[in-house]
Amino acid sequence: MARLHVVSGKGGTGKTTVAAALALALTRGGRRVLLVEVEGRQGIAQLFDRAPLDYAERKLTVGPSGGDLFGLAVDPEEALLEYLELFYNLRRAGSALRRMGAIDFATTIAPGMRDVLLTGKVKEAVTRGRRGGPQYDAVVLDAPPTGRIVRFLNVNTEVAGLAKMGPVRTQADSVMALIRSPQTVVHLVTVLEEMPVQETIDGIADLRATDLPVGAVIVNMTRDPLLSRAALAQARRGRLGTEALIRGLAAAGLDAPDDLVHGLVQEATEHAARVAVEEDERRALSGLGRPTYELPLIADGVDVGALFTLADRLSRQGAA
Ligand SMILES: Nc1ncnc2c1ncn2[C@@H]1O[C@H](COP(=O)(O)OP(=O)(O)OP(=O)(O)O)[C@@H](O)[C@H]1O
Ligand SMILES: [Mg+2]
User: Fold this and answer.
1) CB-based contacts of 238: which residues, under 8 Å, 6+ apart?
2) How far is the CA of 128 from the centre of ligand 1 (A)?
3) How far apart are alpha carbons 5 and 34 in whole angstroms?
4) Which residues contact 252 (CB under 8 A, 6 or more apart)?
5) Best of 17, 24, 193 to mutate for ligand 1, by most ligand atoms within 8 A of CB?
6) C-alpha of residue 103 to centroid of ligand 1, in Å
7) How far is residue 201 from each of residues 181, 194, 196, 251, 269, measured CA to CA in Å?
8) Which of 39, 44, 76, 300 could pair with 71 in a Cys bridge, judged by C-beta atoms 3.0 to 4.6 Å apart?
9) Half-sphere exposure of 197 (CA within 13 A, CB side)
10) Crossing angle of helices 194-209 and 258-286, rounded to 10°
């Protein structure tokens, strides 16, 4: 059973939202779940309507059926200080380094270094014990987008290649061991449009090529068709009859001037074309052979209540 759920996908498709909903769903049965972000954007705090998270795990909410959800915004600077302390007992030296700006330097100039620290902290949270068991039953990572995910997760392999021994090597090896173990899965979020779906297909190929564990595909912001299958087929062929439309307008107490009817037919045709594209994209995704879950577009925007709705959808589909 996976304990580290890494959520990636094309930018803007809903990684942060889906990671939060998945984390909430995973609290089911009284479990303790940690939601982690690593890009310094305070996305979790915003989503849960909280003050910005500092480098400490904070309880965000109680899950839909008990269980607790915690949040953590990992900061590379703090992760470096923790790392220096852990391996070299250098916390005080770390503060001096910070004053000198050396930490800023190390964490912004060397992106690989940054990712080593971030993944190291995630691993620490996943493996941390508490009263004979792990502190968290599951950890959900709001991860970098598809274009950067393989590099991000594999960064410790590069380090392992450079450092032949010593604590850095041990740490890098243990992070990679976790990421490549059955305890880790990488889920990809997409929407039903050509580019994000293509990015999902390519992303899965990249993950597989580097032996990283692929989890589910989560299709976000889906919309139900507004017309029947028959009407969609007619609209697609530009043969949508206007009589039913005019009758509908009359039933709603509206006049049916030609330009209104024409405009509505046009909209129906565009809608039908979009539904057809969505069906093609769905087919392409189902060809990937991964479990696929769908989450609806929430018309009023995503607030905490909507996160519970999305979590419930994931649970009902067996995602968590
Ligand atoms: N199911 C949904 N229904 C309605 N709005 C949604 C849904 N999922 C996400 N959104 C909205 O879409 C926008 C992008 O979502 P989110 O921030 O989760 O994406 P992201 O992939 O994390 O973006 P980024 O690449 O910038 O990190 C946000 O405004 C969010 O509220
Ligand atoms: Mg995000």
Assistant:
1) 269
2) 30
3) 10
4) none
5) 17
6) 32
7) 22, 11, 9, 46, 29
8) 44
9) 18
10) 10
> Three-class SS string for the chain?
CCCEEEEEECCCCCHHHHHHHHHHHHCCCCCEEEEEECCCCCHHHHHCCCCCCCCCCEEEEECECECEEEEEECCHHHHHHHHHHHHHCCHHHHHHHHHCCHHHHHHHHCHHHHHHHHHHHHHHHHHCEECCEECCCEEEEECCCHHHHHHHHHHHHHHHHHCCCCHHHHHHHHHHHHHCCCCEEEEEEECCCHHHHHHHHHHHHHHHHCCCCEEEEEEEEECCCCCCHHHHHHHHCCCCCCHHHHHHHHHCCCCCCHHHHHHHHHHHHHHHHHHHHHHHHHHHHHCCCCCEEEEECCCCCCCHHHHHHHHHHHHHCCCC
CA distances from 12 to 8, 17, 141 (A): 11, 10, 16
Give the atom of ligand 1 at the shortest distance from the alpha carbon of 9.
21
Digit-by-digit pLDDT tens for the chain (320 residues) are 899 999 999 999 999 999 999 999 999 999 999 999 999 899 999 999 999 998 889 999 999 999 999 999 998 888 877 877 777 766 667 677 777 676 666 666 666 778 888 999 999 999 999 988 999 999 999 999 999 999 999 988 877 777 777 777 888 899 999 999 999 999 999 999 999 999 999 999 999 999 999 999 999 999 999 999 999 999 999 888 889 889 999 999 999 999 999 999 999 999 999 999 999 999 999 999 999 999 999 999 999 999 999 999 999 999 99
Ligand 1 atom, smallest distance to 189 CA: 21
Q: What is the pLDDT of residue 157?
A: 85
